[in-house]
């Protein structure tokens, strides 16, 4: 296990989520699946308790902790993309698998975890500052899934 690991709380589907992420994003995998050695408040002995996984090279563990805590946008995975095809593929995988769209490149998977599918061209435009940043920002504010061609056109003015 890595020294610093992101722990993501799930009601009961940590393993399914980890397998979805591993199948969707490169440099992702499912590691150890740890079963509860005894009964606990929201589960019983033998239930999947913890799943070690990586998402785009980021070490994580999924904890099946029950319904006490819900995901919100205060935590998200941000995935940088290089092409519209890659942006579409990740967005459609998340939204098309029971997730939901949000705005400005944000979406949620079916487990409620927030994702930012962010083309690098958008990040570059915002980092450039000045008029191109403002134009790219204004264009982004009208979008759900980010349209790279529209961001590039806005950046140029």
Automatic annotation (TrEMBL):
<dbReference type="Pfam" id="PF06983">
    <property type="entry name" value="3-dmu-9_3-mt"/>
</dbReference>
<dbReference type="InterPro" id="IPR029068">
    <property type="entry name" value="Glyas_Bleomycin-R_OHBP_Dase"/>
</dbReference>
<feature type="domain" description="PhnB-like">
    <location>
        <begin position="3"/>
        <end position="118"/>
    </location>
</feature>
<protein>
    <submittedName>
        <fullName>VOC family protein</fullName>
    </submittedName>
</protein>
<dbReference type="InterPro" id="IPR028973">
    <property type="entry name" value="PhnB-like"/>
</dbReference>
<dbReference type="InterPro" id="IPR009725">
    <property type="entry name" value="3_dmu_93_MTrfase"/>
</dbReference>
